[in-house]
Structure formats: C-alpha cells, structure tokens
Design brief:
Blueprint: H1 4-30, H2 37-60, H3 63-66, H4 71-107, H5 109-125, H6 129-139, H7 163-168, H8 174-209, H9 212-227, E1 230-231, E2 246-247, H10 255-273
Antiparallel strand pairs: 1-2
Helix pairs in contact: 1-2, 1-8, 2-4, 2-8, 4-8, 5-8
C-alpha cells in the first residue's frame, strides 16, 4: 500500500498541470494565436514526463531493489545509479527552464504586440476570410487596431470599411481582447512550468522527510542505512550477525583475512598460556 503514496503525490499534480496545459492549447487554437507549437507540446508532455521519471526514480532507488546478495555488486550499483538519477533530474530542470523562458519571452509587451499584429497582417494580405471571421466572431470584435483596420468583410466594391460593425454591431477592435487572450494562454503555460518545478521539490522533500510513505516501515530503516553509506547483505545483517552491514568507505572483509586474524589471536593465547 505504501507505493500508492508516490502515485498520489505525483499523479494528481501532474494531472492538474496536464489539464491546464491542454486548456491553454485549446484556447490558443480557437482564436489562432501565434504562440509556438513546440511551447504547447512541451507544456503538455512535461508534467507526464516528470511524474513518470519521479516514480521510476523512487522504484529504482528503493531499498528492495538495492539489496543484493553481493556487497561488491551493491557498491557498484549505487555508484552507477546516482549519476543516472542526477542526470534525469537535471534534464527535467532544463526542460522547465526552457518552457518558462519561451513563455516569458513571448509575454513581453513589444514581442507580444508585434507578433499579433504581424499575424493579423498576414491573414489580411492572404485574404484568409475564414480565420479572421472566426477570430472576430469568437472575440466579438471588428478589425485589429480599430473597427475599420483590416476587418472582415473585406473592403470591396459595394462593401465599406465599416461593414463589420454594420453587420454584427461589434464596436470594439480585436487588438485588446486578442492580446488579453494570448497573455492568459502564456500565463497558464508559465504556471505549468512553475508547477512542475514545485512538484519535484515537494516530491523529493517528502521522500527525504517521510521515507516510510514511499518504502514502508521496514524500507525506512533500509533507506536510512543506504543513505548513510551502509551496505547490507541479503538478510540485512553483517557476517558477524550484527545489523546494518558495513559502510561504503570500509574495506570488505575476506575469508583469508579473517582466518589470519583468528590464527594470530589463537597464537597469542597459546604463548600466554605457556
């Protein structure tokens, strides 16, 4: 049952952040915002990838998987596992940084305004009636900077620049509401990036402070011994029968060394009796 805890701790935040990223993507698609496609893809994938990585790290580094019959193989397993775990965490933090940076840079006012104006101009020059009409209908606005600025219906013979206002009655330009919509979308994406960072911090803090939530009561003791640098054999005891094994910085005892030590001690006792 203790393995259900990391699932609940990691899965629920990942689910919420994933849904938030999906909402941001749908909002951007509905009004044809010029936000980067890769930004939306990264925002959707990152919560799922983070949860899967955290859960895998917890299972791989759990005491039950670190207990081996050979102490030497355990030492090598520990040395090889640490870089892999740290590498995975580093990659996740890099992806978080990339996502937050992309969304923050796009949120800057000059970049945001220029991107939207350039997008609307491209649509107007291409006479993309369907896209401009959809944006105007969903935001209930006409034109870009003003109700006469590149609005649909496009000016033509018998169609004036105020045709949008006359037909639909919308008297506000689209620049303000379109900009507000993109700010909302980028804010949600930044929230996803910050939320993923907080999820990792809370997850590893819980593992450190409450290992029994992840490994159980018996696993907590093993986790503390492994974290302290102890190696335990298959039964969790030393060769002499005491608990805890040996520390990683202690030399491994050999049979020949033990026999020599025992023989030397017996020789001293014989000399003393003589």
């Amino acid at each position: 049952m203790h393995y259900l805890v990391p699932i609940a701790v990691g899965f629920l935040p990942a689910l919420v952040l994933g849904v938030l990223a999906m909402v941001a993507t749908i909002d951007a698609h509905n009004v044809f915002l010029p936000t980067s496609t890769w930004t939306h893809i990264l925002a959707i994938i990152l919560p799922v990838l983070t949860y899967a990585t955290l859960f895998a790290i917890t299972r791989i580094s759990s005491p039950s998987t670190l207990r081996l019959t050979s102490k030497a193989s355990l030492s090598s397993r520990l040395r090889s596992a640490v870089p892999s775990r740290e590498t995975a965490i580093t990659v996740l933090f890099i992806l978080d940084t990339v996502l937050i940076t992309l969304a923050s840079s796009a949120l800057a006012t000059p970049t945001l305004t220029c991107g939207l104006e350039s997008r609307w101009r491209q649509l107007f020059v291409a006479k993309d009636e369907g896209t401009i009409r959809t944006i105007q209908e969903r935001l209930e606005c006409c034109g870009f900077r003003s109700v006469k600025d590149k609005a649909w219906p496009f000016p033509a013979k018998g169609v004036g620049v105020q045709a949008c206002v006359e037909r639909f009655g919308w008297e506000r330009p689209c620049e303000g509401v379109w900009t507000a919509k993109e700010r909302s979308v980028l804010g949600m994406i930044i929230g996803v990036g910050v939320g993923v960072v907080m999820m990792k911090i809370v997850f590893f803090s819980a593992v450190r402070l409450r290992p029994e939530w992840f490994y159980g009561e018996r696993g907590q003791n093993e986790y503390e011994r492994v974290s302290a640098g102890r190696i335990v054999d298959e039964e969790g005891v030393d060769e002499d029968g005491s608990e805890g094994g040996r520390f990683l910085n202690q030399p491994e005892r050999t049979v020949s060394g033990d026999r020599m030590a025992n023989g030397h001690g017996q020789g001293e006792r014989l000399l003393n009796t003589v």
